[in-house]
C-alpha cells in the first residue's frame, strides 16, 4: 500500500503548483493540470492522455465521490494520493472535490490537413480572457457546434481558468488556433459563409438569411470585430436589444447567435 504524500514541500506537489501557475512550465513539460472529478472524467472519456490522477480521500469523502474514485481506478491510470495540506497546496479552487490530474498537452495549431467538423463553426478573434474562452467552449458544445477557431488568440488554451470555466468540455471540442489569414483561407476553401457580429451592424440576426454552412466571427472583448474580418465577411449581424446596454458579454453574444441559428435550423427541418 502506497503512503500518501503529506508534505507541502514535496517535489511532486511543487511541480503541480508550477504547472498551474506557469505557461512556460506547461510548455516545457508539455503537461497541464486539471481539477475536479468532472474535468478528469471528461478528459478520459474524450480520449485525452491523462498522465496521473492526484486525489485526497478526505475531500472525496466530503464530496460524496468515493464510488467515482473506485470507477476511475478501474481505468488503470496512475494514481497518487495526497494528504489534505498537500492537496490544498496544489489546488487552485477554494473548495475542491478532491481530484487533480496532469494531462499531456495536444497540438491545437492549424494545419493544412485540418478540416472543420460540421456545417457551423465559431471564430473568436483576439480573445483575451481565459474565463471567457472556457465559458464559450461550454456554450459551443451545448449548442452542438464541434469546431472552434481561435484567430490571433491572446489566451493560453491550457490555462486553468479555461479548463475550469469549460467544466471539462474543453477536451471534447475541436479547437484550432491560427492567424487571421490562415483561418480565413481555411474557411474560404471549405465554402463557409462568413457572418460577422457587430453592434454597429444594420441587420438584426432575426432578419439575416443564413447559408447551409456558416462561420460566425466574433471580435475581442475590448475592441469588437476588427477591420480584417469586417472587410472579408459576407454579412454582419447584431443582437437586437431593448435596454440601455449597447453590448453583451462575449459568451452571451455567442449563445444568442447560436441559439437563433439552432432555432432557425429546427424550423427548417420540420416536416
Which stretches are poorly predicted, pLDDT < 50 over at least 5 residues?
Answer: none
CATH architecture level-2 label of the largest domain = 3-Layer(aba) Sandwich
* Portion in strands: 15-25%
Structural class: alpha/beta
Q: Tally of extended strands?
A: 10
**Biggest β-sheet: count, sense, barrel?**
6 strands, parallel
**Domains, number:** 2
> What's the pLDDT, averaged over the residues?
91
Distance between the termini: 62 Å
Q: Which overall shape is indicated by the principal axes computed on the Cα atoms?
A: elongated
Major beta sheet, strand line-up: 7-6-5-9-8-10
CATH class of the largest domain: Alpha Beta
Helix content: 25-40%
> From the alpha-carbon coordinates, what is the Rg to the nearest angstrom?
21 Å
Count of DSSP-assigned helices: 11
SSE string, helices as H and strands as E:
HHEHEHHEHEEHEHEHEEHEH
Amino acid at each position: 500500500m502506497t503512503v500518501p504524500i503529506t508534505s507541502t514541500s514535496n517535489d511532486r506537489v511543487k511541480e503541480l503548483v508550477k504547472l498551474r501557475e506557469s505557461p512556460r512550465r506547461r510548455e516545457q513539460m508539455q503537461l497541464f493540470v486539471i481539477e475536479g472529478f468532472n474535468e478528469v472524467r471528461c478528459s478520459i472519456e474524450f480520449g485525452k492522455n491523462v498522465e496521473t490522477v492526484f486525489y485526497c480521500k478526505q475531500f472525496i469523502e466530503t464530496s460524496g465521490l468515493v464510488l467515482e474514485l473506485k470507477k476511475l481506478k478501474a481505468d488503470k491510470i496512475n494514481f497518487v494520493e495526497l494528504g489534505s495540506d498537500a492537496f490544498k497546496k496544489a489546488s487552485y479552487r477554494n473548495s475542491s472535490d478532491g481530484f487533480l490530474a496532469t494531462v499531456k498537452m495536444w497540438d491545437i495549431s492549424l494545419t493544412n490537413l485540418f478540416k472543420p467538423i460540421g456545417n457551423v463553426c465559431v471564430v473568436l478573434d483576439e480573445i483575451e480572457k481565459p474565463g471567457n474562452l472556457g465559458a464559450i467552449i461550454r456554450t459551443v458544445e451545448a449548442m452542438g457546434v464541434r469546431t472552434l477557431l481561435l484567430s490571433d488568440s491572446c489566451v493560453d488554451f491550457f490555462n486553468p481558468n479555461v479548463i475550469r470555466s469549460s467544466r471539462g468540455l474543453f477536451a471534447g471540442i475541436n479547437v484550432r488556433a491560427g492567424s487571421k489569414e490562415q483561418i480565413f483561407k481555411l474557411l474560404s476553401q471549405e465554402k463557409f459563409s462568413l457572418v460577422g457580429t457587430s453592434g454597429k451592424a444594420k441587420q438584426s440576426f432575426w432578419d439575416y438569411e443564413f447559408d447551409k454552412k456558416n462561420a460566425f466571427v466574433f471580435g475581442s472583448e475590448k475592441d469588437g470585430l476588427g477591420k480584417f474580418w469586417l472587410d472579408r465577411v459576407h454579412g454582419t449581424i447584431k443582437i437586437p436589444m431593448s435596454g440601455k446596454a449597447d453590448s453583451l458579454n462575449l459568451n452571451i453574444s455567442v449563445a444568442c447567435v447560436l441559439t437563433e441559428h439552432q432555432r432557425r435550423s429546427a424550423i427548417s427541418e420540420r416536416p
